[in-house]
Design a protein that fits this description.
alpha/beta, about 25% strand, disordered N terminus
């Protein structure tokens, strides 16, 4: 149920043949295993251009005959390989090979050398993952919701449903704090959206907010809302007040 709730908004909007509301971007995916091939296909289905890198040309068979993106054979942290994959025009990069070291190096090259805005790495070692989360590179462990988390981080989806109680009236939503809310009290966002914050994730650690909590860059919130409030939450997050950091 949890995994389905995370991905349902993407499926329901993209499956109808309509744009998802995200701007079209070029995404480079390093690693064409089960996760890499799955996310490459999903990204292409929702209208993005995709390039996939893998050392083994045979791995591209997982993409299927319908896949129309680039297939680049090589190391995902090699400069020329990345250039061949279109890294200079990429808005997002996913390092999802089977090796932690390769994923870490590739993610850092994409972020630090090529300035890719949205970078995420799949890291098997949970302690390493925590370190890279704090360095600003979202890291995903090998759990069933890997592909869904990758989709959110790569495409910077600001509000997603993560759980709904049995009657369907009350739900939990994950909110990424946008720039306009940085420096503002959490209570102000609650008032604007009508939502109630259940907990806050800051630097990879969950905490209970207080009446004096001020929002920071990189914060993620889990908020409780009713169905009637979901549009208001989206609007409040996306149309944040100007003049944050006050």
């Amino acid at each position: 149920m949890y995994v389905r709730a995370l991905y349902d908004p993407v499926v329901s909007r993209a499956g109808s043949g309509q744009r998802t509301g995200w701007d079209q971007v070029h995404v480079v995916v390093m690693g064409c295993g089960r996760v890499g091939s799955a996310i490459a296909r999903r990204l292409e289905q929702v209208g993005h251009s995709v390039a996939v890198i893998d050392q083994d040309a045979e791995a591209f068979r997982r993409l299927g005959p319908e896949f129309g993106g680039r297939q680049v054979t090589g190391l995902g942290f090699d400069r020329q390989t990345l250039l061949d994959a279109g890294i200079e025009s990429a808005g997002a990069f996913a390092a999802v090979s089977s090796g932690d070291n390769s994923n870490i190096i590739a993610a850092r090259v994409a972020r630090e050398t090529f300035g890719v805005e949205h970078v995420v790495a799949r890291i098997y070692d949970s302690k390493r993952a925590e370190v890279y989360e704090r360095m600003g590179i979202p890291s995903v462990a090998t759990v069933p919701w890997t592909v869904n988390r990758l989709m959110r981080e790569l495409l910077s989806v600001k509000v997603t449903e993560i759980w709904r109680e049995p009657t369907g009236k009350v739900l939990l939503m994950r909110v990424t704090v946008t720039d306009g809310w940085v420096g503002r009290p959490l209570a102000e966002l609650e008032a604007a959206s009508g939502a109630r914050a259940a907990w806050l994730v800051r630097f990879g650690e969950a905490q209970l907010p207080t009446a004096s909590t001020v929002l920071q860059t990189g914060d993620h919130l889990v908020v409780a809302v009713t169905d009637e409030l979901t549009d208001r939450v989206h609007a409040a997050v996306e149309q944040a007040p100007s003049g944050g950091q006050h």
